[in-house]
Amino acid sequence: MVYRSSTSTTASDDAPRVALLTLGCAKNEVDTDRMRALLLGAGMAEADDVASADAVVINTCSFLASAVREGVEATLDVADELGRAGSSAPIVMCGCIPSRYGDDVAAELPEVARFVRHDEEDGIVAVVRDVLGLPSAPSCARGALRTVEGASAFVKVSEGCDRFCSFCAIPYIRGRYHSRPTDEVLAECRSLLEGGVRELVLIGQDTGVWGRDLAEPRSLAWLLRRVAEVARPFGAWVRVLYLQPEGMTDELVATIRDVDEVLPYIDIPVQHCSADVLHAMGRKGSADELHELFARLRREIPGIVLRSTAMAGFPGETEEQADELVAFLEREAFDYCSVFAYSPEDGTRAAAMPGQVDEATKLERTQRLADVSERMGFAATARHVGEACDVVIDGVEEGADGPELIGHTWFQAPDSDGAVHVEAGEACVGDVVRCRITDAFCYELVGEIVPDAHDGSDAR
Q: I need a surface site. Which of 68, 83, 205, 351 has the fewest CB within 10 A?
């Protein structure tokens, strides 16, 4: 995503320059953005690249073994790049890898000057000053400060998870579930909107249970209504991701249906549909219960767009259960569905389960799921051809015929579901333009700006 570069800082010409790299999910993007804001607020500057940096901060993911490998490889690549540039800039590794592996990772990566757990990231200014040999300075808490000035912004409403699914290491990395206080969430949303954001995407490990642990218990539906009130004067969208089936209460369904600012887009990662596999995963439900849930959502929220996630090759999964999942995806025909092969993660119960599926079988089953998911998803995307809809402009790319506007519309989550390529017209990042969809290719859409249309402030 492209952001406008209007962020102002108090950095002087000789201020320390820090390069920030983010790996992993949108939640890590939020954490990096918070660290960036703290560093800029402390008078530092953001480096354009690693070679010109005085220090490098890498925010890592460790959800899967492949993400850990990516984090280690990226760190070694940065160290190599610094070496080629003749730079002695220290590397600070933050986030999930230090949180998951603690002191063990230090012995494996002597290239890293300091390791910072995710719950220590608000102290990033002191860490960077220390590795640079600078004297300590008074802390500068900046409240809800964020540096995002683009079209969309992710807002974390919670941290951690209490589900302890047998395949997932998140509770061991991020800890138990805790909701962010309402005032903190709303203040951040307001600050982002005032900075030009036109879409707020609420995220967390399990957004549907937000508020249950607060001193005065609340619900996600209640929070969505409050966020919608903040977004309304700006004509902004509100989207929520990472809901679990049990979180789809009547109150939440009604809120998504009835509050104009809240997009009728629901993301529910089912992982599987077999009752036996779900039970082994530490999850609830069955194919019949999930079919009933999605039928209810489609019935009660006209025009709803559904995203999900499915896992192939969980320990003990039989060929019949794999076939059942394929049939489930064909029947549900989700607008978007991510599929992946099970990965045995250190410290999880599933890694020690009998009946581990061999890699070749996992990959074959994953490909079958991907084939169905793409066929259904491409068809769902193509059904929007001919529609007129509002498009939020995310950036500009150079095309064969000159600059091309790139954006997304209400049925596309940013950074996940494809984009709208706007063929002609002038707009800036963050603008909302009315387009008619003229063509589709896979998950990508082509649109033309509708002449003399409104400015898109009614969201859809």
A: 83
